[in-house]
Amino acid sequence: MARKEKVDRIVGNDMDEAEQKMFLLKIEYEKFFSGIERIEPLRAREEIRRIMRDISLQTMTAATQRFKYQSLKARFQSLELYWTRNLVQIERGTHPKMKFRAAVNSSASAPAVPEALSAEQQAVLRQRSERSEREERAYKMVFEKYMEARATCGQSTELSFEAVREALHKQVRLIKSTYQTENVKFRILIEEGKAKVKAVPQ
After folding, report:
1. Distance between CA 189 and CA 141 in Å, rounded?
2. Which H helix or E strand runs over 28?
3. pLDDT at 3
């Protein structure tokens, strides 16, 4: 009979709290980057750092809790990397959402011009734009999970989203061309102690 692991309830509650706060903080940062909120949620971010530091000082005898902590730590590191990259883009004025708002403001002040596109052409452009946004969100989700897996394996997380996205995009093009399919799914694998991303046809 397998021996039951002793789980520290206090540590478990702290990790649950950190996970919930992390989820809420992610939403707050998206609001901040979108311009909905004007103040960066630094206090909430520091609160999660404090909780994670407190957890790291505890002795966790249960393997499940140690694994959950490492996963939470990797996720938070990945999020902080993403937030820092966005903040740098904002400081440089190169953030995509800032460019979009500037373009909207510019077009609002510019004189109106006749609509040159037909309704059908506009619908096609909208569909392409929506598809592009969905793909970008999907790439970001894969990137975050990949960074979490790399951190868990002790690999460097100093990889840019743009570089990873380009590598994934090449895999997608190859899969679509080879298997004549439009649906491709990504899987995060751990092979020989290293995290990898594999594109597979659907």
Report:
1. 15
2. helix 9-34
3. 47
